[in-house]
Design goal:
It is globular, with a radius of gyration of 15 Å. It is mainly β. It has 1 helix and 15 strands; from the N terminus they run E-H-E-E-E-E-E-E-E-E-E-E-E-E-E-E. Strands 1, 4, 5, 6, 7, 10, 13 and 15 form an 8-stranded antiparallel sheet that branches. Strands 2, 3, 8, 9, 11, 12 and 14 form a 7-stranded antiparallel sheet that branches. The chain starts with a strand and ends with a strand.
Length: about 160
């Protein structure tokens, strides 16, 4: 149904994917306005320091002393049960990041990576979705507001779950 890296592009909503941010730990989801490239990759941003979403990773930020969570969101166009499989993988340096996976606003996974914690967190779960359901894959700056070494690789595959 969807793959984060395969479906990544410069148009919000393509393949059901949206790229955004939340200011503060629980702020409202806002679409990132800018798609561009540097010497290494194409990505979405909004002008906050280092905040980005690329085909394979995402990096949170801080603005006015508040954490800025970066979010890769998939919006369903189907009804049924889907299997959501992938991994968050951060860098071992720095104070770590927070990662989470939520289905229609309900947290299904939350973990701290790096900063003395494990650097990888795989996930493999099923979720019942309907047209308009959203699944958010989020990365925040972690326990503090240090954004050094907060780049987090994100792999996501979403497939229809076979009837049993």
């Amino acid at each position: 149904v969807a793959e984060a890296d395969r479906d990544f592009c410069g148009r919000q909503g393509a393949g059901g994917w949206f790229y955004g941010e939340r200011t503060g730990r629980e702020g409202a989801f806002t679409l990132l306005p800018t798609f561009g490239h540097d010497d290494w990759h194409y990505g979405w941003s909004n002008g906050y320091p280092y905040l980005s979403v690329t085909a394979t990773d995402q990096h949170p930020s801080v603005f006015d002393g508040k954490p800025v969570t970066v979010v890769r969101r998939w919006k369903s166009s189907i009804a049924g049960v889907v299997r959501v499989k992938g991994e968050f993988c951060s860098e071992p340096a720095g104070d770590g990041v927070g990662v989470s996976l939520a289905v229609d606003g309900r947290n299904r996974l939350a973990a701290r990576l790096g900063g003395g914690n494990p650097i990888a967190r795989p996930f493999d779960l099923t979720a019942t979705v309907h047209p308009g359901s959203v699944i958010d894959f989020a990365t925040d700056p972690g326990p503090g507001t240090n954004i050094n070494s907060d780049a987090t690789e994100v792999t996501v595959e979403i497939a229809r779950e076979a009837h049993r």
